[in-house]
Amino acid sequence: MDAMNNAYLGANAIAIALALASGVLYAQEPAYVTDVSFNHATSQVDVELSLTIPKAVVENNQVTLFLNGSFDVASVEGETLAGHSSEASAQIPPWNEHVLEFESGYDTHRVSFSYSGELNVDDGHGNEVSDERIHLTIDSAWHPIFANFATPMQGTVTIQLDDSWRVYAPGSTTRAENWVLLESASPQLDVAFFATRNDNAVEENGFTVIYDDANTQLATELSSVGATCLASLNEKFGQNRPLDSASLVLLQRQGPSFARANFLSINSNNVQRPPFGYQLVCHELAHNWTAIGNVMSHDYWIPESFAELVGAREIQSQFGDDAFQSLKQSWQERADGTEFVWRENVHQRASHRVNYGLGPLKLLQLENRVGAQTFDQFIADYMTSDITETIDLLDLLTSLTNSETAAWFEDQLATGELNE
Ligand SMILES: [Zn+2]
């Protein structure tokens, strides 16, 4: 117990020093300093965190955070906190919405949370806390996130795990005897990481695949695919924001695959039917260059459809035209019956059949119209921009071509038709 406490204090001192040293960097975004420990037998997490919230993200003196609804929240405290309430989310029922109300007149607010609870590891989302591995994603709501799905955070997490564990996460990790400190390298909407006592890993040119025993063969193939994509995408888009290395966690699990900067987690069931199925690795890597925006908005087709197309082009250059045609065919199957990609006056989020089907096909239509060279420039301009809204994407197209082409593309986005 004493050893634990010393480790806790040591880690927290470093975390706070990092947070202070990074004060300027974090000024725009909420910043967390989080400590988490586990009961591996019961899948329980125990969390203490401090969240610094700048007034820029506070509206009407309030912010709303999501947190796992089954957790026992022991305390929510802050000097500028005027009120706190929580209730089950109507939008996402397993989660609670915590509404924090602040006193006005402050530039920042600091709120401390203390909570614990068991994760539901059978809900099909791929989260796990066992004595062999820990996989925590957005779907577990183990850490507070902003309920608008549009406010990224930065910070540090101290993970109480001894040195028989290896930890992978977005950003960087520092290992001590009894804990690992994660420091995020870029703002993200959530806090995700993976820890394992298994030492399966294969690395090629900065691309590491960490895998379970079910994926030994696939891991070797994906390390090669990923290394080639990583080099190619850096060459095309990495001038301002290079991705020096990346880690892919490859597990036979349930739940979605996802990417957060240099950390990728892929459900190996999603990477079958090679070679075109390997596109998912390049798709996830491409997300390093697609700005986040609001993941619940009608503009969310942009990062997904561009990542699809960019990933498919990488597979085409590695495996040839047949693989690309197979991907195009899968887009056509998904797009069948969808009515449009984006309309200015419709604000619902596009379906996955649009994001991974009709969207990339509409981009190919644009390529047909403007030619490969201009289209490649359009892709590169988007991937090196911070564009998250369709209006701004159309402006980019206007500046690269002309207003007539942009108006034509806007009309194309508004229909499900695939003929010119
Ligand atoms: Zn994606």
What this model shows, in words?
It contains 10 helices and 20 strands. Helices cover 34% and strands 27% of the residues. The strands form 4 sheets. The protein has a 7-stranded mixed β-sheet with strand order 4-7-2-1-11-14-13, with helices on one face. The chain has a 5-stranded mixed β-sheet with strand order 16-17-18-20-19, with helices on one face. Strands 5-6-3-10 form a 4-stranded antiparallel β-sheet, with no helix packed on it. It is α+β, with helices and mostly antiparallel strands and 420 residues long. It folds into 3 domains: 195 residues, tricorn interacting facor f3 domain (Immunoglobulin-like, Sandwich), CATH 2.60.40.1730; 85 residues, Zincin-like; 113 residues. It is globular, with a radius of gyration of 22 Å. The longest helix has 22 residues. Helix 4 crosses helix 5, helix 8 crosses helix 9 and helix 9 runs antiparallel to helix 10.
